Amino acid sequence: MKDLTIxxxxxxxxxxxxxxxLGKARVSIEGGGGFVVDDQAIVHxxxxxxxxxxxxxxxxGIEVMSDREVLTVRLxxxxxxxxxxxxxxxxxxxxxxxxxxxxxxxxxxxxVDDLAAGTNAVKQWRGDQSRNTQLREHRYxxxxxxxxxxxxxxxxxxAYGRDHVIEADGKPAIPASSDPHFRGDRARWNPEELLVASxxxxxxxxxxxxxxxxxxxxxAYEDRAEGVMREGADGSGRFARVVLxxxxxIRSGSDADLAVSLHExxxxxCFIARSVAFPVECEPSVSIDDAAV
Length: 293
Known about the structure:
The protein is α+β, with helices and mostly antiparallel strands. The chain has four domains: 2-69, ACT domain (Alpha-Beta Plaits), CATH 3.30.70; 71-135, 2-Layer Sandwich (Alpha-Beta Plaits); 142-189, no CATH class; 191-293, K homology (KH) domain (GMP Synthetase, Chain A, domain 3, 2-Layer Sandwich), CATH 3.30.300. The chain has six helices and 16 strands. The chain has helices spanning 14-24, 50-59, 82-91, 115-135, 191-214, 256-269; strands spanning 2-8, 31-37, 40-47, 63-69, 71-73, 97-102, 108-112, 143-146, 164-167, 174-176, 218-223, 226-231, 237-244, 246-251, 280-282, 285-289. The strands form five sheets. It has a four-stranded antiparallel sheet, with helices on one face. A hairpin with a 2-residue loop joins strand 2 (31-37) and strand 3 (40-47). Helix 3 (82-91) packs across helix 4. The longest helix is centred in the C-terminal third of the chain and has 24 residues, at 191-214.
């Protein structure tokens, strides 16, 4: 993606004229901002197709002063000090930040005076952030409450229900039971389904994150995941594998090969997949959403 530096006329309607010219050419803005300084309206906007944007603007009499490659950095929105941290990494490179704003994916966009040195600084910063993240500990608290007492408790195997609810502060309760093969209620979630769903959801969230960073625009995602559990002769059991089958639609112009390959990285990053002792396989499909703009 590229940042265009654009000089607008400092009067009402100038921004509208720019937006209309881009809209007519079917060119989307990915992020940007601008200010009026000394009676000059200078704006910076981010485009995937900078040439199409420049052509559309110049054809409408709007001055494009320059274009440049930019750095894209995703900050941890919940961690204070991220902007200062990445800016300090640039300063120590030393790299001067000349343009800064956010794109529509909540990523930090940096225009710098030395792109190669800036790229190396961001890579080093990300590595430092990753090592710091490894030191952070996260805790998750839930409540599982049994609701299946039919009056005589667990007096006999068939005397009690397997119904329970899974709760967490501030969230709707999840109605749960056991698998119907083990005298559960098929209308309720069972632990095995929740495990498969956790793997699927974790993979999805990592995948969307990686696509956003890589410039692959996902417009739809659906995974019909399946888990296989095998029972032992003594009644115990264990999962043999889980297969994820994410069907992804991407915006026309996105890199389909890259979209497929990012599933491998998503799997490597997924917290849940890294925590289980059975294989988690992925059989992805990618299609192009020609209707998306």
